[in-house]
Structures are given as structure tokens and as C-alpha cells.
Specification:
Elements lengths: L2 H16 L8 H7 L1 H14 L6 H14 L3 E5 L2 H11 L7 E5 L4 H9 L3 E5 L10 H7 L4 E4 L11 H11 L2 E5 L7 E3 L5 E3 L6 E5 L13 E5 L2 H11 L3 E3 L2 E2 L10 H11 L2 H19 L5 E2 L14 E5 L4 H10 L29 H7 L2 E4 L7 H17 L2
Parallel strand pairs: 2-3, 2-4, 4-5, 5-8
Antiparallel strand pairs: 1-9, 6-7, 8-9, 10-11, 12-13, 13-14
Helix pairs in contact: 1-14, 3-10, 4-10, 5-6, 5-9, 11-14
């Protein structure tokens, strides 16, 4: 280590000793800022004992419909249920093929197999990490019934192209919007809409670490189709519209009232949360843009990246060594996702292990996500930036 680098190293360590512990997501600090409103909302639910389908559920549902600009929002128990119920509502049958990226969280793909459908894994765009429309077109067969694009890390998929392909081949589109709620998307007709409202059905998760997260599990399904909304509500409620009259096989998936009360408060902050994440991302971009062999996140012109994750691609650096370096300096980091779906044992019966997805495989070996959240202060971020820069200064 050279003299200047040694001085920088000790300055970094001194700053670390006096600084608040860095989190991937700092939910405690976020709560402290909205504590009075959250505490009041939760206490109201407990005081009135409206634990299931209480008034807060209806209020949140209406507020989210307005925010998203969509006709129907159906709250449910979690994001995985949202995807499963969406596929059930579309009447998909065993053997039907569903095109989806392999580079995503397993929930997107496991519900396909759970329902006896056939997952068809396709490639992603190496810039956006989202499904590649060209790959969709090439994968369509007579058995293809739906496309499930994932808005990964907060970046919207190319929905203009996806919808064009879906219309051409008469396919359903289910958007996995769990990581991009709050993102704006510009349609080819010039209209600006929210992600999750473009396809036939949109699904999201309110897992605590999400941009809009509750204090437990939660999810929602949205659609502009009245008939689909009716089916979704029925399936999520044991297949019934009228109590004790069960028309179809359904499930029990509902957002409990305490979680709805939390989300009702936090939805009012969502745009501020998005802005805060984008500010953190902009500072990272400026710091890392000049580092050779490091790809900073791409921002598509047709959408607003909401940065659920800030993910770098290390083109010619040792990811394990960088992660160890960060850990030594008490900086958390994550690999989203180290094993793509097509290489998971759970899909072996579909022969997915023979699928050739070189871009996906390349990304899984090179992505690393740094801390990003709504409460990150500049001192913490500068420490992260300096620590990352120190690694590359010592390894170039």
C-alpha cells in the first residue's frame, strides 16, 4: 500500500469508528421518522379489534388504486400469493408455457411450477437486467400462454416491446412489480403510467425491505379488467363471492389490518422514499462511473428507476475479494441472485438445466448490491464509496 493510500486507509477507519452502523436497509431509522403516525395507526387497529378486513384495508386499497391510477387493487397476504392468484385467475392450465426471466427471485418462477405450468426461462438485457424482448419472441410456441416480465432492482422492463409481442401472439402479461412500485413508465403512445398497471395483471410485495414495505408480509394484485378483478377477489377469498358459496377452488390470502394501517401511512411517503433512493444512487454513480471494469446501473429513457437495489456489475474484478473487503469494514453487501432459476434443482424436471442463458450466467457471477435506503446519510455513503475505491486502488 502506497503512502497516500495508507493515509486514506486510516482516515476511513477513523470515520468508521465514529459512524452509525451501516445497514443494507435501515428500517429502524425510517420508523423513527414516522413513529407517531405509525403508532397511532397500529393502536387504532388494536383498540377496535379490527384485525381482519378492518377499515384500514379498504382505505389503503383505495389509496393505492389512486396512486397507481388503476381501476382495481386487491390486497393479499404476500407477493408470492399475488403471482399465484394472478395465474389462477387467468385460467392457465397444466402444460401451458409461461415465459419469464431466470435472473430473478425464485418466487416469480416457483408459482409457475406449483400450478403445474411450464416455466420457459429466457435471457435478460445485460444493461437493465430485465427480460429481453427478442428472447421472448424466440421462445414462443403453440403452448405459450403468458409472459411474466420482472421489473428488477427498480428498473422497469421494456414494456412497450413486451406488450407489442403479447398483442401479436395473444398472450397474457403478468407484471412482477415487487421491486419497482412507484416507478413511472412512458408508453409508446406518450402516456405516462405506473409499472404494474400495464399488463393484464400486476403483482407486488410489501415485504419490509421493499420500497413500500409493511411490518410483516403483505402483497397486492392490480388490474384494469373488471372480470379479472372479480375472479382475483374470489380466488383470494376461498373461491367465494357469497359467504359459504364456493364457485372455484381458491385460497386464503388477505392483507391483515395492522399491515394495511402501516402501509396506509407509508404510501404517503413513497414518492419521498423513491427520491431519497435516487439521490443515493446518483452519488454512487458519480463516484463509481470512472472505475475501470465497473458497470454502474443503467437508466432506461422510458422509465424512472426507483432503486430497490443499487447493483454494480464487476466486469473484471474479484467479487468475493470485494465482498470480503466490505465485510472487514462493516459494510454489508448482497448478491442478488447467485444461482439463476434455470439452474435450481427445483426445476430439474423441466430440463431447465440444459437451457443456455450465457448473459444470465455471466451476471450471476458478477453482480453485487451495495447498501441503499431512504435514511442513508452522506457520511455513511462516503464511507462506503471510499472503501470501494480503496479496494480498486489496491487491486488495479
Amino acid at each position: 500500500m502506497k503512502g497516500g493510500q495508507l493515509i486514506a486507509f486510516f482516515m476511513i477507519k477513523k470515520r468508521e469508528d465514529s459512524m452509525k452502523k451501516i445497514q443494507m436497509v435501515d428500517l429502524v431509522s425510517q420508523y423513527e421518522k414516522i413513529k407517531p403516525s405509525i403508532d397511532m395507526a397500529i393502536q387504532d387497529v388494536i383498540q377496535h379489534a379490527h384485525f381482519i378486513n378492518g377499515p384500514a384495508v379498504g382505505r389503503f386499497q383505495a389509496d393505492l388504486q389512486t396512486y397507481l391510477g388503476v381501476k382495481h387493487v386487491i390486497p393479499c397476504a404476500n407477493g408470492t400469493d399475488a403471482l399465484q392468484i394472478a395465474m389462477m385467475a387467468l385460467g392457465l392450465k397444466p402444460g401451458d408455457e409461461i415465459i419469464t426471466p431466470s435472473f430473478t427471485y425464485i418466487a416469480t418462477t416457483e408459482v409457475i411450477a406449483l400450478l403445474g405450468l411450464t416455466p420457459v426461462f429466457v435471457e435478460v438485457d445485460p444493461r437493465t437486467f430485465c427480460i429481453d424482448p427478442t428472447a421472448i419472441e424466440a421462445a414462443i410456441t403453440t403452448k405459450t400462454k403468458a409472459i411474466v416480465p420482472v421489473h428488477l432492482y427498480g428498473q422497469a422492463a421494456n414494456m412497450n416491446a413486451v406488450m407489442e409481442i403479447a398483442e401479436k401472439h395473444q398472450l397474457f402479461v403478468i407484471e412482477d412489480n415487487a421491486q419497482a412500485i412507484g416507478s413511472d413508465y412512458h408508453l409508446s403512445n406518450g402516456k405516462k403510467v405506473k409499472t404494474g398497471t400495464i399488463g393484464d395483471i400486476g403483482c407486488t410485495s410489501f415485504f419490509p425491505s421493499k420500497n413500500l414495505g409493511c411490518y410483516g408480509d403483505g402483497g397486492a394484485i392490480c388490474t384494469n379488467n373488471d372480470d379479472l378483478a372479480r375472479k382475483i377477489k374470489m380466488i383470494a377469498n376461498h373461491g367465494q363471492q357469497q359467504k359459504y358459496v364456493h364457485e372455484v377452488v381458491g385460497c386464503n390470502s388477505r392483507l391483515d389490518t395492522i399491515q394495511a394501517a402501516v402501509l396506509e401511512v407509508k404510501l404517503r411517503q413513497l414518492d419521498n422514499y423513491v427520491d431519497a433512493r435516487r439521490e443515493v444512487a446518483a452519488r454512487y454513480d458519480e463516484a463509481f462511473a470512472g472505475i475501470s471494469g465497473v458497470q454502474i446501473p443503467f437508466r432506461a429513457d422510458d422509465s424512472k428507476h426507483v432503486f430497490h437495489q443499487y447493483t454494480l456489475v464487476l466486469e473484471n474484478a474479484n467479487r468475493n475479494a470485494l465482498q470480503e473487503h466490505l465485510t472487514e469494514n462493516d459494510i454489508p453487501s448482497m448478491i442478488y441472485y447467485p444461482i439463476p432459476a434455470h439452474k435450481q434443482k427445483m426445476f430439474a424436471a423441466f430440463g431447465s438445466h440444459t437451457t443456455d442463458l450465457p448473459i444470465t450466467d455471466w451476471l450471476t457471477e458478477r453482480v453485487i448490491s451495495l447498501p441503499i435506503h431512504t435514511e442513508m446519510d452522506e457520511e455513511q455513503q462516503e464511507f462506503i464509496i471510499d472503501t470501494v475505491k480503496m479496494f480498486f486502488a489496491n487491486n488495479n
